[in-house]
Structures are given as structure tokens and as C-alpha cells.
Amino acid sequence: MAIGMRRLLALGQRTDAIELLDSGRLSRAEVAANLADLARLNRLPGGTRTSLRAIERLVGGNAARILDVGTGSGDMPLAFARRGWQVVATDVNRDVLAVARANLTGEARVELIDADASALPLDDGAVDVAHSSLLLHHLAPGAAVGALREMRRVARHGVVINDLRRGVLPLASTWVSVRAFGHSPVTRFDGMVSARSAYTLRELDALLAEAGLTRRWRSPGWMPRVVTAATA
Question: Averaged over 111-132, what is the pLDDT?
């Protein structure tokens, strides 16, 4: 049954379909609505709390400086700041940055910058941990490896990747989640594209290895959304 379903849904290979958020055709209001939905989804299992656990695996209870690549609405940097960490939050989409800037106003522990994951404007070892959430599936394999190499370069202790994994269960779970918590039609469309664009855990480990990283910790691999901590 699972094999037949996988073939039917073409999950053997990741799709290269473009999400609406990446299309450049959305209004700022549509972007804001989509990002609000994603912040809501980040409160589900596998989201912000699991990223916090993974980062703590790398830095312990120490003060830390965290890089959040592809920050979206800025909800994760706010959670990191509440943990007491200093945060550099980046995104390359101007409408996304505008939403994040409004949400992060007044939070002195978070610095927001316009930066692409492939060319981070930070010195080697400038942060303790480089983190991304729901970013990697937007990138083709070559671009994903390039982003991981950049994240490895700027991070002293390691890299944390929070993303969907491709498969029948994640696809079904994503459908349920975006229907239940996604108020925006953009979220409902992009959620399904995301589930089919995601990497399998084996593919993710191969990308990490190509970028010079080795997996050190992973949240439960059967979950639709999995968090991986890796070091050089």
C-alpha cells in the first residue's frame, strides 16, 4: 500500500515546483498572512521547542549567539532571545523582512539583516550555532550544500536544520496541519509543495556530509518534521 501510494504521489524524488512564497507574485498582505500561519505551525511538535533542544545540545546552558537563516516572521528568533541568546536573523525576501522587522521591534537581543544563505555577511566562526527552519526544502541540492557550507563556516559549534522529511506520512500530516492551522490559501498550497520538495533523512545526511558536516543528534525520525544537529 505504502509503495503504491508513494508511486502515485511521486514521492520517490523531490519536486522542483515553486512555492507561492518564492514566486515574487504575492502582495505584502499575503506574505504576512502566510508567515503568521507558519509561526502558528512552529508551535506544533517538531517546531520551535525542538529547535531549542537541538541548539542546547550544541551550546549547553551557556550564553550563545545564534544565527537564524531564512527567519520568516521572526518568531523563532524571539523564542531564542527569550532563552537569553543573542540572535542574528536573516532573510532575502524584502516583504518577509518587513514582517519580521515589525515583529522584532523592541527586541534588543535580535539583529535583523538582509542576507542570502549562499553568501552570509559574517566572519568565520561569528556565531555559536547556525540554525534554519523550513528553509532547506526550498533549495535544490547544490544550493542546499552551498547554504550548509556557509552555515558551517560561520558557526563555531555546529548547525541545526529543522525541516520536513519527504514521505507518505509527512505528506498526510502536512495536509492535516495546513487545513487545521493554515488560514491563508497560500499556506495550504505551499504546505503541500513543501512536503513534496523536502529531502528524505538519508538525502539530508548526504547533503550534510557533502558540506563537511556530521549528524550528532536528531529528533525522532518518524516525525513529519525532524530537527538535526550537525558539527564539522
Answer: 98
20-to-24, 42, 70, 162, 195 alpha-carbon distances in Å? 7, 19, 16, 21, 14
**CA 198/CA 139 separation, integer angstroms:** 9
Contacts with 176 (C-beta within 8 Å, 6 or more apart), sequence order: none
Enclosing domain of residue 203: 2-231
Q: Is the pLDDT of residue 2 over 80?
A: no
Q: Exposed, middle or buried: residue 27 (CB in 10 Å: 0-12, 13-18, 19+)?
A: exposed
Q: Residue 215 — φ and ψ, nearest 5°?
A: -65, 130
Measured CA to CA, the distance from residue 231 to residue 207 in angstroms comes to 13
Cα–Cα dist 34/38, whole Å? 6
Q: How many structural domains does the chain have?
A: 1
Q: pLDDT tens digits for 188-230?
A: 999 999 999 999 999 999 999 999 999 999 999 999 999 999 9
Asked if residues 132 and 117 have their Cβ atoms less than 8 Å apart, the reply is yes
CA dihedral 151, 174, 222, 215 (to 10 degrees): 0
CATH number for the domain spanning 7: value is: 3.40.50.150
Q: Scan for cell 522542483, then name that residue.
A: 16
